[in-house]
Design a protein that fits this description.
heterodimer; A: about 220 residues; alpha+beta; Glutaredoxin; Glutathione S-transferase Yfyf (Class Pi), Chain A, domain 2; 2 domains; four-stranded mixed β-sheet; 4 strands; globular; B: about 220 residues; Glutathione S-transferase (chain A); transferase (chain A)
């Protein structure tokens, strides 16, 4: 049976990037369908009725929602090529812990980018930098979070890199100055085909921000 | 395999719904474990060392190595003690679905969510908290449907994720002046079914005891 794989996604989404990378790492052919988040398609609403969000991975007609759950699903469905999670339960628990921690950076980033005032934005920046430093000390001097193997935690974080230019511009700070090892790690990751193909163009993301800010004020 | 026989210690707090998940999982698998009760206002050295990032309970320490975050602990327990039945189905699509619903429960039915109800006096904030709680519980109830458990015939990962909060329903009802059973009868029926299981009965405190704890918290946070 030939697998039919569809990804409902939105090009700048740092969550969508995770799923794209996981599929590319496994060499899975998929149909990418760009979604208009202001005018959600019937397919998106049918496939993710609970959250109505992207990314949605549709495998042989059945949906899988939530990016990190999609990454595990991809790893379990196509187990042979490039394992994304370690096989040892303890190492898997550590990987899941850091994936979970990375997701906890989002509220701070939300404040930084979409905060109502300067104070909220500063708070958000502080939270984000503190958490990124914690992630950086976890990385240490390793090539990837998984050691020599690119995997789950790298995939969880690298999507943020497409937004670093935007964070720096709007937050008025340098991520490299705060977390040089993270930048070095990111540059290593973008050399991988799967990442290069999947990350959005940083300039285009930054250009999109004023439009997104306007929409958020309306919501 | 030697790994399963190594010592298991759980850094615990009896009223924590998160710690209850881990205790239920360990008991479902028949794992011997010790608990160390933590004073959350005066955290032990061991807790701070074992969970330096979040400094929270529960922490599962197996053979000296710590695992943090309750749902991650439940998955770790499932993957380490493989003789007993798995909490997750074997099909990847069904597994993803179970993870989705556990994640939904995690995001919507929480200590902080409950606090909006018990941590406020009657008024707008409390009403908002009640609405959020009940809206989410109704979505979960629709997913449960007429099944005995979220796992179908099998008590599984999603059941483990949600059932600890059953012990907090009474406190929310008393503080919020509403009835969970009136709003979500299937959830309450499911909760009663779950507490018939030894693992759940042993891990959930009595609702009245939780309520006494909530009253203490209300005093500490200056609510009354």
């Amino acid at each position: 049976m030939v697998d039919e794989v569809i990804l409902l996604d939105y090009w700048p989404s740092l969550f969508g990037v995770r799923t794209r990378i996981a599929l590319e790492e496994k060499n899975i052919k998929f149909d990418y369908i760009e979604q208009d988040l202001c005018n959600k398609s019937a397919l998106l609403l049918e496939m993710n009725p609970v959250h109505k969000k992207i990314p949605v991975l549709i495998h042989n007609g059945k949906p899988v929602c939530e990016s990190l759950i999609q990454v595990e699903f991809i790893d379990e469905t196509w187990p042979k090529a490039n394992p994304l999670l370690p096989s040892d339960p303890y190492q898997r628990a550590q990987a899941r812990f850091w994936g979970n921690f990375i997701d906890k950076m989002l509220p701070g980033l939300g404040k930084l980018m979409w905060g109502a005032n300067g104070q909220e934005q500063e708070e958000g920046k502080k939270e984000f930098v503190e958490m990124l430093k914690t992630v950086e000390s976890e990385l240490g001097d390793r090539t990837y979070f998984g050691g020599e193997t690119f995997g789950y935690v790298d995939i969880a974080l690298i999507g943020f890199y497409g937004w670093f230019d935007a964070f720096e511009k709007y937050g008025n700070f340098s991520i490299e100055a705060e977390c040089p090892k993270i930048i070095a790690w990111a540059k290593r990751c973008v050399k991988r085909d799967s990442v290069a193909k999947s990350l959005p163009d940083s300039e285009k993301v930054t250009e999109l921000v004023p439009e997104l800010k306007k929409k958020k004020r309306v919501e | 395999m030697g790994k399963e026989n190594e010592k298991v210690v759980l850094l615990d707090f009896w009223a924590s719904p998160y710690a209850m998940r881990t205790k239920i999982a360990l008991r479902e698998k028949g794992v011997e474990f010790e608990t160390q009760q933590e004073d959350l206002w005066n955290k032990s050295e061991l807790l701070l060392k074992s969970n330096p990032v979040h400094k929270k309970v529960p922490v599962l320490i197996h053979g000296g190595k710590p695992v943090s975050e309750s749902l991650i602990q439940v998955q770790y327990i499932d993957e380490t003690w493989t003789d007993a039945a798995s909490f997750l189905p074997s099909d990847p699509q069904a597994r993803a679905n179970a993870r989705f619903w556990a994640d939904f429960a995690e995001k919507t039915i929480s200590f902080e969510g409950g606090r909006k109800i018990w941590g406020n006096n009657k008024g707008e904030e409390q009403e908002k908290g009640k609405k959020e709680f009940l809206d989410s519980l109704k979505v979960l109830e629709a997913e449960l449907g007429d099944k005995p458990y979220f796992g179908g015939e099998t008590f599984d990962y999603v059941d483990i994720a949600l059932v600890p909060f059953y012990s907090w329903f009474y406190s929310l009802e008393k503080c919020g002046d509403f009835s969970v059973e009136a709003e979500c009868p299937k959830i309450v029926a499911w909760g009663k079914r779950c507490v018939e299981r030894d693992s759940v009965a042993a891990s959930l405190p009595e609702s009245e005891k939780v309520y006494q704890q909530v009253l203490k918290l209300r005093q500490i946070f200056g609510v009354e």
